[in-house]
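Fold it.
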Amino acid sequence: MTVLSIQDLSVQFDDVVAVNQLSLRVASGELVVFLGPSGCGKTTLLRCVAGLQQPTGGHILFDEREVTGLSPADRNVAMVFQFVSLYPHLSVAENIAFPLHARGVPKAEIKTSLEWAAQFFKLGDLMRRRPNRLPPGDKQKVALARAVVRKPSLLLLDEPLSALDEQFREDMRWELGKLQAELGITTVYVTHDQREAMSLADRIVLMRDGKLIQNAGPAEMYANPVDRFAAYFIGSPPMNFLSVHRSSGRAPWLVDAEAAEWPGPNSAVPLQASPGLAARLDKIGRDRFTLGVRPQHLGIDGANGGSRIAVHVVNAFTVGHDHQFDFSVGGTLYSGMPAALPAIGARVDAVMTDDHVHLFDADTGDRFDV
């Protein structure tokens, strides 16, 4: 399988820098997901790999072979787009075979390829049908079969599931991961959906404003986000961020709040830092910082010695087996997942699991490594 190398790649449209000196290496057989919000440059980067967009600067290599100036036809890549484009007047089999006919592949070889595709993608009963009569998930399978049947060097997937209903999306997410693992094709996948990225990727490339923010496996990115943006973008529900400053009064640390919410001279909620968190705060030596903690690591009235703040419960509900409660500080709503559901309006201690508390620079958003 092909190794993809991207070296100092830049793409600029007039005054807009869509991709900013990005470097990346995708190993043979790896599934790498380009993840980020709309407009971050991930699709532009994918189009450069496909040869549909010429970069302003930098290099793209397949197995150390320069392909930056080559046309898409000369790169032997297959691309599946968000909206499936199949020929409505052709059968499923004819759609899958179309690129093989275009290449002049012998009929016997095409027949063998179609038999393989029908078995591998479980399309046997659908091969004679027209694509406009198929459900969305099956249409996407046909598009994938057509893409891989000609044995591309790279498989490029641009938001392939975002046009599907949630029911089909869940099924296809599992199918895609299974298919890619079995085929072993080096694959680059673009999405803005962090759930897709976390469930599919061998490695995630998180982008923002054309820049690579973090490049790591899903578990590493979840546990050790490099900055506040990465911490917020990965994880569901998203991470809570509390703005904290040092007090000159009795309580050493205060979580910013509105006077109407927490009346008093400081108009802030005291943070009762555990000895472990207090030692980390002494190491960073800042009077202001942002504290980040995921809802999964924020409970109530715990006896585990974690750091805590006293809050009023503004909402409490259960989703499946998970309890969730919400509280407001500084006009911002925060969430936790307690072992037992509290009563709405109750006053409780929101308790953090200290091992999972992240500290970020209040100005830059970078995570302190303490």
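Confidence is low (pLDDT under 50) at residues 258-266.
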